[in-house]
Amino acid sequence: MKRVMLIVAYEGTAYHGWQLQPNGITIESVLNRALSELLGEEITVIGASRTDSGVHSLGNAAVFDTRARMPAEKISYALNQRLPEDIVVQSSFLVAPDFHPRRCRSRKTYEYRILNRSFPLPTLRRDTYFYYRPLDVEKMRQAAEYLVGKHDFKSFCSIHTQAADTVRELYSCQVIKERELVTIRVTGAGFLYNMVRILAGTLIQVGIGERLPEEIPEILAQKDRAGAGPTAPAHGLTMMGIEFEGHSPASVTKRTSSLSGRE
Predict the structure, then answer these.
(1) 41 in helix, strand or coil?
(2) Which candidate, 94, 82, 104, places its Cα nearest to that of 1?
């Protein structure tokens, strides 16, 4: 028995998120079916991040156990022949038999993309949120600085979360403007349900002047979802990648770190 890691990129438009659902096609269900057919045994993957319906990824990670003799690094090539064009495995490789992508320290990076102009662009409609009101990016940057560090993010979490502990640590929260594209790039040890989308919705409110940057500490202190801004639409969010620390082999960190941001 060996444990194999997959680095998976996907466009989430057609899927009900990552995690198995009783009444919808998910990324996990498609991978399980394709791997089981390829390797001739029942395969169940364990994902590192359970992205929501409509959210995309350039580097989500998943592991599975197999008795198949096919070399781990060859699985990605064979698997991609069985996957739809909106799911593509970027690499596959061996990891330690006890490696679990959700039980070790990691750094996850997400980007929320906003097209800020008078009219939408059809080519960006699937992975970028169109917003026509002008955004004050400098104000958004000032607000983002208050979010960095360890805080109780209960105000920035869906009321439907099952998390008992809502304290999380953000290593960075950047607002980057490139012409008409505004990108909110967030890196942290972990994220709550809808957390990045609520952060984005709140920063957009700052950008249009409905909130002041200095209100962010007060919103955090309230620990009340009603105090933060709206949940931004799912299609603007992309998980860029994961860097695993300590427990995993060096190859895991090396392969995933190149996907954690567009430098």
Answers:
(1) coil
(2) 94
